[in-house]
Specification:
By secondary structure, the chain is mostly helical. Helix content is 64%, strand content 3%. The chain has 8 helices and 2 strands.
Length: 180
């Protein structure tokens, strides 16, 4: 079964990005070797750096979207929870259901445009900005990391790094975008 997977994977990668042996860099060491019946292929030999970058940025964009989408659904499905979050972490009181629906609806439009790759400077920047604000608003949780539930807040930092990378590399993020 694994051999069949490796063979199918290597054929798919070869079909996507075939380069003659002369064009391959002899300085770049192979990262992963896939063995087929008669030969072995390296993913780094089958894909250019630009193609690997585009795939990496797509994976980052999709994973950031999933997290933001769940947070948005929380605002729309549990407006009372959003009100308590805004009060506890941002010091904003008196948030009602209507405000939660407006904020959740606007955020939904933003993240749909983000995952579609539209208006990258605006949408990627807004996602980065909002996530930065929410990460910094939880600063007290980072001071006492081993108190109940505080370790989960540290997951915000790798996501902030992903948002930063997406914003800085937004012009290279062209795979499955509406603007490509």
């Amino acid at each position: 079964m694994f051999r069949r997977f490796c063979f199918c994977w290597s054929v798919a990668m070869a079909a996507l990005t075939f380069r003659p042996e002369a064009e391959r860099s002899s300085l770049a060491p192979p990262v992963v070797w896939l063995k087929t019946r008669n030969s072995a292929y390296s993913i780094s030999m089958l894909m250019t750096a630009s193609q690997r970058l585009k795939i990496s940025l797509l994976v980052l964009r999709l994973s950031v979207f999933v997290v933001m989408f769940i947070w948005t659904l929380d605002k729309l499905l549990r407006p009372d929870h959003m009100a308590s979050i805004f009060e506890r972490y941002y010091g904003i009181t008196g948030m009602g259901s209507i405000q939660a629906y407006v904020i959740g609806g606007a955020e939904l439009l933003l993240i749909i445009a983000f995952v579609a790759g539209l208006w990258k400077r605006l949408t990627y920047g807004a996602v980065w900005f909002f996530h930065t604000i929410s990460t910094l608003a939880s600063f007290g949780k980072y001071i006492a990391p081993f108190d109940a539930g505080n370790l989960l807040f540290f997951a915000a930092w790798p996501m902030l790094a992903a948002c930063t990378a997406l914003y800085l590399l937004r012009d290279s993020d062209t795979l499955f975008t509406a603007s490509s």
